[in-house]
């Protein structure tokens, strides 16, 4: 009996191995027969996962602003307390940033590898010190530093330096939209507390400013004229409203179909009927 048992075990193991080899061979053949095993990828945007997570959580209308959730024990309840909280927190962050920009050598010791230039403090460019050329003007336009861009353009214009028509168009649109002033607090993307609690300040159109100077240096076109009409209506006064209506009549006589909808809305906003 002792001799028979090892033989039986050997026979059983051989049968199992034989079955396993046959099954693996069959599985290999079946995998080869399958042409498409992975479905086509579904195109998704960067925020689809966030939207899916957000759909599982309902909104609480009684919850405080996310700016206050850092310290639940000090969540303000009145408008004045919220304003003070917003200003204290954001002004502290802005003061720290100005300190890093003013004395960047104090923050020269970096541990990050690779070095990330986007997180390094940089000093504010002085339009009176930089070279008067188009390469220095374009970054100011892109960052919406309206006053600095206007100051640098006046230097470029006084030095007789030529810049491209594309750069002039960008500066004209920027200076006209903001009336030669920096972007208001309502449009600040970073400091949401100031944006939420700021007040809109209306200004009258600055006649003879950079917007007018750039417009006069460019060839007349319906689009440029429409931009000027919109800006005159946005920063309207009695004189600017009359000028906007006169330019609008010229646009209608030339080609009314090419007038942008925002220009129609601007004219309606200053109309008296």
UniProtKB/TrEMBL annotation:
<keyword id="KW-0496">Mitochondrion</keyword>
<dbReference type="GO" id="GO:0019843">
    <property type="term" value="F:rRNA binding"/>
</dbReference>
<dbReference type="GO" id="GO:0005739">
    <property type="term" value="C:mitochondrion"/>
</dbReference>
<dbReference type="InterPro" id="IPR037387">
    <property type="entry name" value="PTCD3"/>
</dbReference>
<dbReference type="InterPro" id="IPR055063">
    <property type="entry name" value="Rib_mS39_PPR"/>
</dbReference>
<dbReference type="GO" id="GO:0043024">
    <property type="term" value="F:ribosomal small subunit binding"/>
</dbReference>
<keyword id="KW-0809">Transit peptide</keyword>
<protein>
    <submittedName>
        <fullName>Uncharacterized protein</fullName>
    </submittedName>
</protein>
<dbReference type="GO" id="GO:0032543">
    <property type="term" value="P:mitochondrial translation"/>
</dbReference>
<keyword id="KW-0677">Repeat</keyword>
<dbReference type="Pfam" id="PF22330">
    <property type="entry name" value="Rib_mS39_PPR"/>
</dbReference>
């Amino acid at each position: 009996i002792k001799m028979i048992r090892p033989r039986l075990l050997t026979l059983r193991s051989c049968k199992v191995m034989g079955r396993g080899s046959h099954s693996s061979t069959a599985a290999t053949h079946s995998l080869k027969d399958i042409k498409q095993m992975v479905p086509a990828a579904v195109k998704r945007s960067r925020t689809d996962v966030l939207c899916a997570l957000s759909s599982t959580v309902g909104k609480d209308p009684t919850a405080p602003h996310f700016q206050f959730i850092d310290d639940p024990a000090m969540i303000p309840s009145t408008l004045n307390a919220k304003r003070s909280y917003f200003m204290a927190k954001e002004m502290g962050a802005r003061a720290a940033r100005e300190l890093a920009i003013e004395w960047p050598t104090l923050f020269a010791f970096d541990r990050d590898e690779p070095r990330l230039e986007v997180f390094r403090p940089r000093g504010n460019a002085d339009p009176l010190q930089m070279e008067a050329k188009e390469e220095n003007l374009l970054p100011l336009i892109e960052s919406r530093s309206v006053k600095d861009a206007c100051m640098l353009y006046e230097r470029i214009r006084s030095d007789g330096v030529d810049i491209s028509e594309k750069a002039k168009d960008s500066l004209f649109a920027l200076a006209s939209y903001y009336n030669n002033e920096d972007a208001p607090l309502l449009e600040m993307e970073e400091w949401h507390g100031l944006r939420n609690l700021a007040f809109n300040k209306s200004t009258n159109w600055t006649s003879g400013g950079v917007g007018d100077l750039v417009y006069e240096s460019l060839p007349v076109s319906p689009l440029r004229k429409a931009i000027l009409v919109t800006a005159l209506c946005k920063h309207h006064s009695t004189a600017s409203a009359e000028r906007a209506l006169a330019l609008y009549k010229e646009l209608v006589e030339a080609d009314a179909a090419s007038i942008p909808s925002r220009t129609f809305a601007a004219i309606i906003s200053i109309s008296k009927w």
